[in-house]
Amino acid sequence: MLKNGHLSDEEIALYAEAVIAKKVDEMDESIRTHILECNECADKVLAVTEIHEDFLDSENNTPVKTIALRKSYWLQIAASIILIFGAGLIVFQIKKVNKNTIQQFADIVDSTTVSVDSTNLIQNKDKHIAQKKQDAVPKVNQPEKTPQTVHKNLLAYAEDANMEKLVDRFKNGALRGSFSIDSQSTIEIKQNQELVLEWNNENKELLIIEFFNNSGEKLFEEETSDHNFKTKKLSTPGLYYWKLLNEDFDLLFCGKIIVQ
Amino acid sequence: MLLNESKLLILADKVVNRYINKGVIPSREREDTQMLIVEKFILKQKSIQKNYSEKSNITTYCISVLNNMCCEIIRKDLKYWKNELEEIPEKQENHGLNTMKNIIIQDEIKYLDKILNLFGSEKHKIRLALCYYYMIQIQKQDIINYAKNSNATIKELNPNTKINKSEKLNNLAIFVNSVENKNIKPDAIRMWLNKIINIIIDRLNSPFNRANYNKESFLILYELYILPGKNNFIINKKDHA
Questions:
Q1: B68 with B173, same domain?
Q2: Residue B15 domain boundaries
Q3: CB A178 within 8 A of CB A203
């Protein structure tokens, strides 16, 4: 917090992001208490939340604009090609007639808008293509945090209601008496870090581990008779769920994995 | 450069637009205010960049900075604008008034929801407690959201029962204690509820005293928020005046 007892611009921004992602409870306790008591900071958070949502909404509408822009871009190219072709054809025809006429035509062409337009269009086209190339390079090398990617990122951590119910059921461990889970209900790992799931499998039973994304769709499954399972397959940041089943497909445990 | 020029202009426009929609900035001041905050942002760019520690998204951070700058301008110029804002004559004709009213009410309902979202998971408890306190039909989902991990009974929270305020607070205390496994007294519930209502009303009236909500008008808005489309109040509002 700043010296004047209010939240900094970045803390306001962070809280607004948490409100949008419905993750206010994950914010620092002191910040939450401050927001509850300080109208000024709460107002700022509300403002940033509203403006950011408004911005995201308008960004979501941009593909329509892009298509429209693309249309005009292709029309420009088509028009310039036609004009170049037309001009070329005229020059070719005139060359056939005589040199004098060519000279006359050259004078005419210089003064007509057709030739001026076509040159401009070609230049515009070149500029446009060069600009596009320029724009494309940093996007590949340096992924900027655009609102769409933020939105995608937020969605990657959205919870699946059905899976959450299951996770809640197994919050205190596995339901089967002889079987115990050593891993926590929610596991947090960093990107590209190895995920280790642990349990107590005294009877060396064959177990099936299933992994799901945050929409509840199955990603992959593995089998083991061991006390643990390690994988590096979950490398994309987001929320995942995992289920542990025995050979008879009885659900032994369901937990969640947060890849940061 | 934190933002490119076009994005900066878009964000500045969104910021100013918010305060125009809230009736704080007169619409004719749109461009001037927008240019002022863009200029401020460009001039202070170095310090803005220095204060950014990349914890939040760059766009959200810039919105936060631009919003602060806009608020500074409003604080400075509001006294000049106030006369202009107050001079706007109220429309007398009925034509289109209902549609206008509906849009405003919908905006206010959305704003109330955003205010409640600031409370995080406590939102569910607040929604439930307010519904019971104001005797508005309790939504099943609110009970599930608040009491999902407990076997607490909700028989005490029957909104059709005609009971006085102290009985309501007593029942609320029993319910909250059974869900949260605490020993809170009804008086503590009363104080908590009063504090929450005052916070919500203060936030509804912000920014820059744009509205004039009191407990009665808040009750009307809250009922519309919980039961959209319902015009008949379940209880007589005079009980709570």
A1: no
A2: 5-117
A3: yes
